[in-house]
Design a protein that fits this description.
alpha/beta; 3 domains; 17 helices; 5-stranded parallel sheet; FAD/NAD(P)-binding domain
Length: 449
């Protein structure tokens, strides 16, 4: 196919076959035989450290034993009782630093049981069977508003519906799913899995969905508190940090990595997406890795991740760093961007300054050099945007995010929160799911106190 160029950017760099191969599932599912063999490797520990390491406390030994016994649907139900988004978490959760890192076989042999792939095997079987193992309790007559249709909001809504409450989810975008739909690399969640999981969650019933309803625009906390018996906020982090260098918001070819990934995830035809030949990604987290790897998969010839600290300080796991490097991404550490180079309004490079650690403090060295770039993607963190919180007088923030207690209650009566928008939010799907679940249980208890 012919390429279409705009400055240094070009679409259609690859063949149709290349796009298909590049964005196929990075972790092919286990076959039935492979799942049985892997399940047999589990020691079924009674004090399983893997379960302790799971933020949602899935009974991992039990579900693996059920797989070994040929009861895949039972295994899926065990998983989903603790984590209703178990299918997505099996795909995107950093199991290598959570349950698998805690696995006894990892400690003894350096080869843990493939818990994530086994979890995917079981949950995929259940979804393929079209099963919804949970039933709604009798109606309580209570109504709860859930603001935000990401992992935290979906988990909260499902648990509340299961407990017999009527739930309305308000979502700012066209689709539910949050970062699962808009912010995760396409090769991790193929075949529209995020929306299929949303449909599965909603199939329990009792959940109304209102998309294109943004907090601070179509809805606000004050009116929701008047109309509902309880309100849960799970809006995530809508804002992004800025580099603070000239040309960031005006030069062609410079864009936010979150928007880049969202556009890619919603694209019907990947060949229509423009990508640079020389791409520089600023940041060291999962968003930076996903943006960099997908740039390579779209046909970029040279992709560099620039991070201000050392590789061991990157938020992206060692495994994800390896994924980037095996896809030809160059990691430059202890450097920070100090200028964007340009010509005729188009970015042509990034000036990087080397940094160093002095008594644990990051310092500039004054040593600078230039890296050629016709596309720069910024991934230096997201921030909570408190728009629409009017009517929540007395709402306490901590570090710019909503302060909650262990039950995810805010400082305002009748208002709960969870996910990335709360102080201490871990930027993990699995952690957001736990927040939503715990908030739902707390709301239920509060309404029946």
């Amino acid at each position: 196919m012919g390429s279409v160029r705009t400055g240094g950017l070009a679409s259609g760099r690859l063949t149709a076959e290349d796009y298909k191969a590049n964005f196929s599932d990075i972790h092919p599912p286990l076959t039935r035989h492979e799942a049985f063999v892997e399940a047999e490797r589990c020691y079924f520990c009674s004090d399983a450290p893997c379960q302790t390491a799971c933020p949602t406390s899935i009974d991992i030994p039990l579900f693996i034993r059920e797989i070994a016994a040929g009861n895949d649907l039972g295994a899926a139900e065990t998983i989903l009782k603790s984590n209703i988004l178990g299918g997505m978490c099996a795909r995107v959760c950093p199991t290598e630093t959570l349950c698998e890192e805690a696995c006894v076989r990892e400690t003894a042999e350096g080869k843990p049981v493939k818990i994530g792939l086994l979890q995917r095997h079981a949950t995929d079987r259940l979804m393929e069977a079209g099963k919804q193992p949970f039933k709604r309790a009798s109606s309580t007559g209570k109504k709860i508003a859930v603001v935000g249709g990401g992992p935290a909001g979906l988990a909260c809504a499902h648990k509340l519906a299961e407990l017999g409450h009527s739930v309305t989810i308000y979502e700012a975008k066209d689709k539910l799913g949050g970062l699962n739909e808009y912010g995760i690399a396409a090769y991790k969640t193929t075949n529209d899995f995020a929306q299929r999981e949303v449909d599965f969650i909603l199939s329990i019933g009792g959940i109304e969905v209102k998309t294109n309803h943004a907090l601070g625009k179509q809805i606000d906390i004050a009116s929701l508190r008047r109309s509902y018996d309880a309100v849960f906020i799970g809006t995530g982090l809508a804002g992004v940090n800025k580099l603070g260098v000239d040309g960031e918001g005006t030069l062609r070819g410079v864009r936010d990595a979150v928007d880049f990934i969202a556009e890619l995830r919603q694209a019907k035809d990947l060949s229509k997406l423009a990508i640079g030949r020389d791409v520089v990604v600023i940041g060291g987290g999962m968003t930076a890795i996903d943006a960099a790897v997908q740039s390579r998969k779209l046909g970029a010839e040279h992709v560099t991740i620039a991070y201000r600290r050392g590789q061991d300080a990157m938020k992206a796991s060692e495994y994800e760093q390896e994924v980037a490097q095996t896809h030809g991404v160059t990691l430059r550490t202890f450097v920070k961007p100090v200028a964007l180079e340009s010509q005729n309004g188009v970015v042509t490079g990034v000036t990087l300054e080397e940094t160093d650690l002095n008594n644990g403090k990051l310092v500039d060295t004054g040593q600078r050099y230039s890296v050629k770039a016709d596309m720069v993607l910024t991934a230096i963190g997201q921030i909570f945007v408190p728009d629409g919180l009017g009517g929540a007088d007395g709402l306490e923030l901590d570090g710019g995010r909503i302060k909650v207690d262990q039950h995810r209650r805010t400082s305002v009566k009748g208002l709960w929160a969870g996910g990335d928008c709360i102080a201490g939010g871990e930027d993990l799907t699995v952690a957001a799911v736990e927040d939503g679940k715990q908030a739902a249980l707390s709301i239920h208890q509060s309404l029946h106190a």
